[in-house]
Structure formats: C-alpha cells, structure tokens
Amino acid sequence: MTLWLPSSPLLLASKSAIRAKVLSDAGLAVETTPADIDERAVEAELTGDGATPANVAGALAAAKAVNVSLKAPGRLVVGADQTLSLGSERFTKPADREAGRRQLARLSGRTHTLSSGVALAMDGVALWTEVDEARLTMRTLSETFIESYLDAAGEGARTSVGGYQFEGVGANLFERVEGDFFTILGLPLLPLLAALRRAKAVAA
C-alpha cells in the first residue's frame, strides 16, 4: 500500500539502503539517485564561517537534494546527511578498518551527538530543510571487543559516520540513547512526512 500521491516516485538523493527502506516502509513510492557533490568542499565553505555540525548536516542534505533535482525536472527530491560530533571534534565515515578502530576507541565511554539533516528540492531549488539531533552514549569498549565488533560489522562499519550502524550489530556499542530512532538512522522521518503532507505529496 502506498500513501504517495504524485505520479512519479519520490527521488532519494542517496544510495543508502536503510534510508530507502525507511521511506518505503512509511508507505512512500521511492527511487534512489545518488547525488554527485563534493561534500568536503561544502563543509569547508561552512566551517570557514564557524558553522555548527547541525548547519553542516542541513547544508549537505540541501546540496544533495538540489543536485539531483537539477537532473530530474519536475520531480520532488529528498536529500539527507548526518554529522557526528564529540564536543568540538567532528567525525566522518572511517576510510578503513584502522580508522574505524581509532574512532570507536575515541568514542568509547563518551556521549556524542548525531545531527541529521533532511531537505526537499525541486528543479534546482531547496524547498525545505530541517535538522534533528540525538545524543548517544557509548559504553566503555575493550580493545578486544572493538576488534570483535569490526569483524562482525564488516564493510558496514565503514559506511556510516562514526563507524557503526545502530540499526544492526552497532547497537551492541551503546548503553543509552536520547533522541528519535529515525534521526539516529540519518533521516528525520516525522518532520519529513509533515513537510510532504504540506506539499500535498502524501495522503493526509
């Protein structure tokens, strides 16, 4: 069953399988078309102005949505992005297993913040952007457990900011979370659905 009203599916400017599943499970017709942007360049422009991690997440989400919307005239596009911050320190997706190990060791026993941005665009114009945040406290991890986790997570440890996928084996890393589950997954779903209802794209 779909609650999606337009004749063309919603375009997700990402190759994220979990974000596509979240949208589909919510009753939306969705197609994926990864954005082609230089994320580090967008971040550099913003961080030069003292932008917060939330500002960066929102700007990246909007940039992705706009990028894909330019290639798909008349289509509604959703973009999403996520930043992870530990105080003033920001994390990105680990490049390899060793980088993942270092990130997990740094986050071990501490509380970090996930800032998840989501945006809608059409025909090269950003129509709406919102950012939601969640706080996650990682339990104290032994070196042995970190290695066992990385073995179990495989490539998944390198596809998410911070080196974990909370919806899977990454849940074993945490002792407490504060915030919305969808925000932790990198797609603030409830604000997005409200925006889509206002745009008359989802049944109200």
TrEMBL record:
<dbReference type="GO" id="GO:0047429">
    <property type="term" value="F:nucleoside triphosphate diphosphatase activity"/>
</dbReference>
<comment type="similarity">
    <text>Belongs to the Maf family.</text>
</comment>
<dbReference type="GO" id="GO:0005737">
    <property type="term" value="C:cytoplasm"/>
</dbReference>
<dbReference type="InterPro" id="IPR029001">
    <property type="entry name" value="ITPase-like_fam"/>
</dbReference>
<feature type="active site" description="Proton acceptor">
    <location>
        <position position="81"/>
    </location>
</feature>
<protein>
    <recommendedName>
        <fullName>Nucleoside triphosphate pyrophosphatase</fullName>
        <ecNumber>3.6.1.9</ecNumber>
    </recommendedName>
</protein>
<keyword id="KW-0546">Nucleotide metabolism</keyword>
<dbReference type="Pfam" id="PF02545">
    <property type="entry name" value="Maf"/>
</dbReference>
<keyword id="KW-0378">Hydrolase</keyword>
<dbReference type="GO" id="GO:0009117">
    <property type="term" value="P:nucleotide metabolic process"/>
</dbReference>
<dbReference type="InterPro" id="IPR003697">
    <property type="entry name" value="Maf-like"/>
</dbReference>
<keyword id="KW-0963">Cytoplasm</keyword>
<comment type="function">
    <text>Nucleoside triphosphate pyrophosphatase. May have a dual role in cell division arrest and in preventing the incorporation of modified nucleotides into cellular nucleic acids.</text>
</comment>
